[in-house]
């Protein structure tokens, strides 16, 4: 959808006019009583208008950048929509990325203002976040003493608005910077992705048309960014008490209670939460009759966890597995019923099918290279079935990283008026036009020496994961006698005892010999507990495992 100017808040204004008293947001405030604070569309629109006026009166105005570190709450929604309305650029970061990465993010983005809860403001003050650029600090919630410790003005003390008219929302050029969203850092150094309102609009249209979300629905919101799309879609966001940066720690009872209380029709869950809820549902024989759609994203969920979770759903309800990244989301989508039909192919090392492209998205596969590609040429495309780097084009694809010219040059390819994004993932398109994922480009192992061969992480690992004692595996390179060779780290299923390591080793060798793409893998190491990212609990830190494996092999 091409717009001369845009603002995501236009959708909120529309909902406030057409369904003013309908629920917009409900946030669990006390886990002990399962009580919720609620706000309707008219109230959310009015309160974000009021906040936009008050931010302006305090000197925070259009074009400025403001860090927003506020836990999911009514305040979070009001402030985010206020920033968008005022044309103030929110900087959104994942607190789970670690202190060092957070400081780097703020140094790069150079925010003018810092809006956060007391804990975030105290951390800012102690650790010097944004020290060279932040001129205004606002504290959300907390007492007077808390504000003093935070070195910030209480947001409730901002000048009162005297205007009676609705706030005149900023209409930005379609490709103007509207927000900076930092990647989590789970697959590399966090980078600030420049978002425009055109990108947000494209995501809203995809959720409407490809996912079928309609006004009046209710969504169990487990991820802050996605929860913002609820009010923009005329859908209520129901926010349970949980640490959104560590979904694996969520209490399933709270989430099940929220779904039942509000009769949620939609759920957005990452693989870790999908598995946790599925296990809880299986043990409690719980059902989710109100849920009509489940969207899973962030990392590939296992077939077993999707099947377990699906037992709670009514017949015909799909788990929609979405592929994409902060730089471009969603790109493709695969319903669980179709995914189940690809289980055998995945177990035999053909990769993970992530479905057909979303409407308006073009997916191409190019040769693997670390070099920048300035200009797109159709001759770069590989034939179907050939594995290479995944490149995408569409209205939800970001054009650049913020103040990261070298990263932008590596990841972006100019294609006329459009930009193609190199996903950093490898895969292939089959004859039906479906995309198959074969892992991160950086996680391939190129064997050197006499027997040169290229190994891809997902095709290799999924083959070995079929062994009943293997929980998961990770392909890493090791240097032996000056040659780079493949090694497989193994994490065993803790519920099963490995009685004979020699037998396990023999089994793994036999598996390797069965498939042409795993022949040559003959080195295996058992690791007690793989290092994984906090949010998804699924993205394995293979770089850390590679260092560990190299040390282990030398000691051996």
From TrEMBL:
CDD domains named in the record: FACL_like_1
Pfam families, A to Z: AMP-binding
Taxonomic placement: Bacteria, Pseudomonadati, Pseudomonadota, Gammaproteobacteria, Alteromonadales
InterPro entries: AMP-binding_CS, AMP-dep_synth/lig_dom, ANL_N_sf, ATP-dep_AMP-bd_enzyme, OlefBLtnSynShew
Species this protein is from: Shewanella japonica
Domain AMP-dependent synthetase/ligase residues, every copy: 28-402
Listed PROSITE patterns: AMP_BINDING
Gene3D superfamilies the UniProt entry points to: N-terminal domain of ligase-like
Protein name: Peptide synthase
